[in-house]
Amino acid sequence: MNTKALMSLSAMVMAAGGIVLQFFPHEVLRHVGIAPDGIMPLLGQILGALYLGFAMLNWMAKAVLVGGIYARPLAMGNLMHFTVGALALLKYAAVGEHSWTIWMAVAIYSLLAIMFGIVLFTHPGTPGTNPSIQPRT
């Protein structure tokens, strides 16, 4: 799997979410049916900061060899984030009628969770691309 593309994609997804939450917390809260008062806008902005930090981590590590034992903490952190996030979003979406944005988030998170799972549990190289990896005969 092309981990540079995967890391870039995950960075862009999280950066987009982070920017939206950072600059438009009231609008996001209203969209999901939560009153934008009290501490909720602040929590939205803190979540946006978390997304932006994780996006920066992935963007700066996009050239790193990821998979198997290489950059395992990075792959594990992404797998955990996207898997738990996908399950939480799916649970939320399954209990009632929600907007298409929730289902789109479920699809994106699920896809990224599967992709990071593949990266984590497979060797990063394929036969023929790395001279130290020999195909089985």
**Helix-strand string:** HHHHH
The strand count comes to 0
Large-scale geometry: globular
Major sheet attributes? none
What is the count of distinct domains?
Answer: 1
Helix-and-strand structural type: mainly alpha
Task: Tally the helices.
Answer: 5
Rg (C-alpha, Å): 18 Å
Termini, distance in Å? 22 Å
Low-confidence stretches: 130-134
Q: Helix content range of the residues, please?
A: 55-70%
Portion in strands:
under 5%
Mean pLDDT: 89
Description:
- Helices cover 69% and strands 0% of the residues.
- The chain has 137 residues and is mainly α.
- It has one domain.
- Helix 2 crosses helix 3.
- The longest helix is centred in the middle third of the chain and has 23 residues, at 72-94.
- It is globular.
- The model is unreliable at 130-134 (pLDDT under 50).
Q: Which key features would you list for this structure?
A:
globular, mainly alpha, single chain, 137 residues, 0% strand
Give a quick summary of the entry.
Helix content is 69%, strand content 0%.
Please render the helix and strand layout as text.
Blueprint: H1 3-23, H2 25-31, H3 40-60, H4 72-94, H5 100-121
Helix pairs in contact: 1-3, 2-3, 4-5
